[in-house]
Amino acid sequence: MTTTTQPTGPLRPEGPAKLTGHAQYAADVPAPGALAAALVGASVPTGRVAALHTAAAEKAPGVAAVLTAADLPRLRPQSSPPLGHAALPMQDDAVRYEGDPIAIVLAATWEQAVHAANLVTAEYADVTEPLMFGQAEPVPPDSGHVLWPTDHRTGDVEAGLAAAETVVSARYTTSDRHHNPIEPSSTLAEWDGDRLTVHSSVQTLTLTQQTLAGLFGLDPEQVRVVCPYVGGGFGCKGYVWPNTTLAAAAAKAVGRPVRLTSTRAQMFTLNGHQPATRQEITLGATANGRLTAVRHHAVNATARGEGHFCEGAPVAAGWLYASPAIQTRIRVQQVDRPNPTAMRSPAEGLGLFALESAMDELACASGIDPVELRLCNEPEVDPTTGKPFSSRTLADCLREGARRFGWERRTPEPGSMRDGNDLVGWGVAAVTRETNRAASTVRMRAHADGRFVVETGIQEIGTGTPAVIQAVAGEVLGIAPARVGIEHGDTAQPPGSPAIGSMSAMSLGSAVHIAATELGDKLTAAGGAAGLRTAGIDYLEVEGRWDPDEDAARWKDHSVNAYGAVFAEVRVDPDLGLVRMGRCTAVYGAGRVLSPLTARSQAIGGIVWGWGQAVLEKSVLEPGRGRFLSKNLAGYIVPVNADIGDIDITFLDDDRHASPIGAKGIGELSAIGVGAAITNAVHHATGRRIRDLPIRIHDLL
Ligand code: MOS
């Protein structure tokens, strides 16, 4: 893989620690006296545990105990989210999904615990045929994980369609997908009386602290969560899942520290997944391509008995294009499976596959260039709310992307571009994502020896947040970013942004900006570091907090979204049905770029992620057994470097309404639209319209 647009600016301060193994992940933390734990999961998808046979496991080498539901403390119900699953694990004999924990084996080493866990067998009762996606009634989500508006209507869609010259209507589907972070979830839990400390691989320290406190009936101050580094999450560590809960419960039960590390296979069932969706889109347009109606309905699978995890697939239809009539609707099917959760990029990442495919179908049906079609539907204000856009860069992204990609050389007829035996296709998709934000606090010190330190309770999840902190602080203080030290990863520190929803850089960066500004003023007044030394002062300290609610005047009267345009070239081997990425050009308007290196890395990662969605990632639930058939990276395939062609990334703009530092979210933006750009390119190459992701070889033969 090669990429253009080389970054300038600071390097990533956490890099050396990671490369040399000094960065400590939850499974690395030394824990003398701790027992290693492994979970036993139910092998059926419904019913209850009638009998558990643990004798063989108890006799296995190194085993200290086998815990069942009866051995664990009773947990107090919590709302979900932040609990990833509404039903608490191992509190009764119910089996709610295949893999639902039914026993915990504690041993001297993790290998011994995993081995013994395999020796535990169970008898089940009341097992029923599991309901699969497609077999349950779609119902309005009414509780739990409903993070998006489920029913919205602006104008009269029927009238808009009646007035249309061209109507396209189609159904699109996306598959069940898994997060697959490199680091499986791991939690080291230790009790000291009624105080609990957990080292756990989580995407949010504060939510984990509050949730554990609630589960065990403690005050949040009695719970300390430590997590400086996370080996990837993509959403599966965003809420609190059984790995964290059961480690703490087991440690309490046995009165010893316990470290529970999930297996790779358990990551497919115990941390959520992205649920399959079915989406229906109908677009109406005038002869010159102006939309008269947009209807986007979506249904996703969710877990019976675990709340209503709801995907906001249609939300972007609310602001992406001008239309006098827009209707969106979300329904869920409650089926027998582990509870789904948000996965990079929820909502728009699923919805824009459908909407941007439909726009391509409309372009073909109307004989209008796909870039032109999008440009002629630019709204003046948010068509759903009537609010002005804080900044609206879609048209600039489309034009700049088309220029960089060389779009004017495209011949519109499908199959008209060839390179040897390969059919070449060029596709485009618009990209947008709503901007999220979270209150963030940092403590910052200027030391008399010239060092600067930022302290905040955030974790480095792979996105390079420390580089962002350094860049913002360095700019405000007028110093080299590398002079700013960062201490992070502990609820004992001021609470930073959770590492979810593409909000960390902007939210935390704003807090750093506020702190660094105040610290710089104080330091100047004190005569700089030399002044501190003369006065015998070791350091100056300030706290900076950005609270989006207190700063609501900045953003709440605007429609604040990030935008982009992604252009993909595919090469299709018509004899083998293989699709390969030729190249990808993406231009984003995501507000001010705080760290060019990390922003570009995020964008590359997002496009690679989108390639996985488009051509590789599909998890199959086995009918009758209700289990994911393949729970490893051999049977569930993700992209590797050899899959990826040239990627060209550009960022535009600045958005002072989004945050004090002009930044918006980047991380999830770049995984959006890629699927549609690729299937649109495949249509251009072959004339085949793929409406179901991922593209399969037989779709093209
Ligand atoms: Mo993301 S799905 O908010 O980690």
TrEMBL record:
- The molecule here is called Xanthine dehydrogenase family protein molybdopterin-binding subunit
Residue ranges of every copy of the Aldehyde oxidase/xanthine dehydrogenase a/b hammerhead domain listed in the record: 20-128
- A Pfam family (short name) is MoCoBD_1
Q: Which UniProt keywords apply?
A: Molybdenum, Oxidoreductase
Q: Which Gene3D superfamilies match?
A: Aldehyde oxidase/xanthine dehydrogenase, a/b hammerhead, Aldehyde oxidase/xanthine dehydrogenase, molybdopterin binding domain
Checking PANTHER family in the record gives: ALDEHYDE OXIDASE 1-RELATED (PTHR11908:SF132), XANTHINE DEHYDROGENASE (PTHR11908)
Task: Note the InterPro entries from the entry.
Answer: Ald_Oxase/Xan_DH_a/b, Ald_Oxase/Xan_DH_a/b_sf, Ald_Oxase/xanthine_DH-like, AldOxase/xan_DH_MoCoBD1, AldOxase/xan_DH_MoCoBD2, AldOxase/xan_DH_Mopterin-bd_sf
